[in-house]
Specification:
- With 70 residues, the chain is mostly helical.
- The protein is built from two helices and no strands.
- It has helices at 8-35, 41-69.
- Helix 1 runs antiparallel to helix 2 (41-69).
- The two termini are 24 Å apart.
């Protein structure tokens, strides 16, 4: 009776995962911008870029699934 409503915990877990991914992406943005100024930084920027692209793609998929639930 005092526990979570059935089905709500899955939505909350999905939302918390998305919020955590967004927070990580926000932390990485200033690091990526600051890291692009030195020699040889291009390769690191490429790795960061591909990781961010992957995260954005996964967030889009999660967003669509949450929209379907809502």
């Amino acid at each position: 009776m005092n526990g979570p409503v059935a089905g709500a915990s899955g939505q909350e877990n999905g939302a918390s995962v998305i919020l955590r991914d967004i927070a990580r992406a926000r932390e990485n943005i200033p690091k990526s911008v600051a890291g692009n100024s030195g020699p040889g930084a291009y390769c690191g920027a490429c790795a960061d870029h591909s990781e961010l692209v992957f995260r954005i793609a996964s967030l889009k998929v999660k967003n669509q699934s949450l929209r379907g639930v809502v």
